[in-house]
Amino acid sequence: MADTTAKEAKISIKVIIDKVKRRVVYAEADHTFVDILFSFMTLPLGTIVRLLGKLDDKKYEGFGSLKNLYQSLEDFPECYLSTEECKHMLLNPRSLSYDHCRNLKLQIDDTEPLKYFKCAACADYSSYQPIFSTCTKAKCPKCGKLMTSEVTGSIQQAKVCVSGGGVFVSDIVTFIVTDDLCVMPYTSASSIQLVTRLGISDKSCLEEIKLDMGCEEMALSLDSVFTYIVFHRIESIRDLLIPGQSGTLDQIDLTEKEESSSSKIHLQVTLQNSTGKLLFAEAQEEFVDFLFGFLSIPLGTVVGELMKGVSSLTCMDNIFKSISNMSVGRYLKSQEIKDMLLKPHIGQQYSSKHQVFRFEGIPLLGSSKYHKDPRIDRGLLKQSGMFIVTNDLNITRSSSYSTLNSLNDLKVSFFDIKRDEISIGLIEGLKILKASLKSRSTLTDSLDHLLKM
User: How far is CA 393 from CA 87, 127, 143, in A?
Assistant: First the structure.
């Protein structure tokens, strides 16, 4: 998707379909397809939202309220951010596996290759410790001029080369991929088991077709089942799954120690008095900072470390479980590869002090001392008053008129509202993140339990 040639590239897989019920039974694929599926775990949520937003299929909208969150950041005035480069950094989160994934047959991630920039006016390294930025909006901490001079030479990272034909998995294995993206090595027993579990007793209703998958089809796989890609059936994924495969929104399992050690963020919520429905929240920069931070978290970290393998994205949960269950050596190429997929690091060392999830980012450079810190006082937003956050995560600057306008849009009388104050900790933060992946009413779905207390 990064250029015309990459967008036109295709890979082919064999798909077994049920002609009668118009659904996919399973697909047969080699390492090229499975490598791409597994690479989804390395992508930051912001990258995924950007990729889904570029799809030509206008009937399809995925990833819940995160689309609104990303759009809010695009429209967010830079004057409220700590520095000019903060917005660029948040809108263009980088996977630390980016160079590995450049070896994939299809380039799904359209993020530009990493470049470093310095201040041309302060380039005398004999008297000044070099400081670099990864965008041209950064200002030199010494003289204040824009750092627009591109760095060439040893600081630029070399392309990662992979041994053998596969990037993540063996190139001599054939895999079965189910409709909801469970991946397993092919055996005749597994294919027969999949057919019989769907109630298919003979071959008469089955047909093998060839499916050409380009970047758009692969991007659709991020949030839809195979059946949608083949038959363009828009229906709930749960109608296509075997019972017991999908998780619920309430499965958040934390220890008391984890919850008590997390920081708290306070916000005011406006409710409809007659129904108790949450209309919108008003919060200071801490909550907005926290929400924008979602976009930098890799999908594998969300599904694995934060959601313990049970997010609201059933297909992605299945990919994560498939990697977890796959043995190293015979199928996955190494333990390092397995860890890269199951525990992807944040490709950005400058997380906000308001982030309630406790994980550390990794410097893009070998040492963070060479990289300009875009934050002020470890925050990505300035202390800048109040913001309105709608139920579906649209974020705007709060003002008297915007509040009245929000109530008017919701068709709620000014006499039918009440206000409450709630605190957001680790459990509430996880619930908000989980709801945002699928729901268009994120705040209601995640905070309703606090409003009934």
Answer: 17, 47, 38
**Which SS3 state, helix, strand or coil, does residue 193 take?**
helix
Residue 158 pLDDT grade (very low, low, confident, very high; cuts 50, 70, 90)? very low
Among residues 292, 209, 303, the alpha carbon closest in space to that of 251 is found at 303
| Pick from 206, 233, 273: nearest CA to 415 | 273
Instruction: Look at the alpha carbons of 101, 107, 111, 117 in this order and tell me if their dihedral is positive or negative.
Output: positive
β-sheet bridge partners, residue 178? 26
**Residue 415 amino acid letter:** F
Q: What percent of the chain has pLDDT over 70?
A: 82
Give the integer Cα–Cα distance in Å for 203 and 201: 7
Question: For residue 332, what are the β-bridge partners?
Answer: 169, 328
Q: How many CA atoms lie within 13 A of 23 on its CB side?
A: 18
31 closest CA partner among 160, 172, 222, 187: 172
198, two tokens: 């769907």
Give the model confidence (pLDDT) of 350-366 as tens digits. 677 777 887 665 655 55
**For the purposes of burial, counting CB atoms within 10 Å of the CB of 98, is it exposed (0-12), middle (13-18) or buried (19 or more)?**
buried
pTM score, whole prediction? 0.87
Token pair in block for residue 282: 């008003």
